[in-house]
């Protein structure tokens, strides 16, 4: 890690913190985002060297982190709402039977299959994020999610469909 990069990041911290606070509902979330952005800059293979290039790059990293967090939050909220509906046994909804079949099929899958479906389809992680969580290459994640989705469909629709 270069000393120049560290110096540039230290100079940018007040601006990054102000930006992150302006796009986050809670101050703590903004601080966490800046910390994650700095970590990514320090571990990036080839971050911009000049501060003029690093500054917009860092703002994009913070913005992308916020977008990812919002997407994950929505996926979690939607998932929790669906789970709450299943737990309440809401028979009034026409699709509750289908939801129950999907849930039962999901729970009948092997743990490794459930895990990849949960990370990608429920939690909304990107393939590279799931690969990082699982400690496997991105290509492995792509093949696992394909097989997992096929297995879930077969459990729901039957193997002949």
From TrEMBL:
InterPro entries, A to Z: RNA_pol_sigma-70-like, RNA_pol_sigma-70_dom, RNA_pol_sigma70_r2, RNA_pol_sigma70_r4_t2, RNA_pol_sigma_r2, RNA_pol_sigma_r3/r4-like, WH-like_DNA-bd_sf
One Pfam family, short name: Sigma70_r4_2
Domain RNA polymerase sigma-70 region per the UniProt entry, residue ranges: 10-74
Keywords associated with the record: Sigma factor, Transcription, Transcription regulation
GO BP field: DNA-templated transcription initiation
Residue ranges of every copy of the RNA polymerase sigma factor 70 region 4 type domain listed in the record: 101-152
MF GO annotations: DNA binding; sigma factor activity
Family named by the database record: Belongs to the sigma-70 factor family. ECF subfamily.
Protein name, as recorded: RNA polymerase sigma-70 factor, ECF subfamily
Organism listed in the record: Fulvimarina manganoxydans
Lineage: Bacteria, Pseudomonadati, Pseudomonadota, Alphaproteobacteria, Hyphomicrobiales
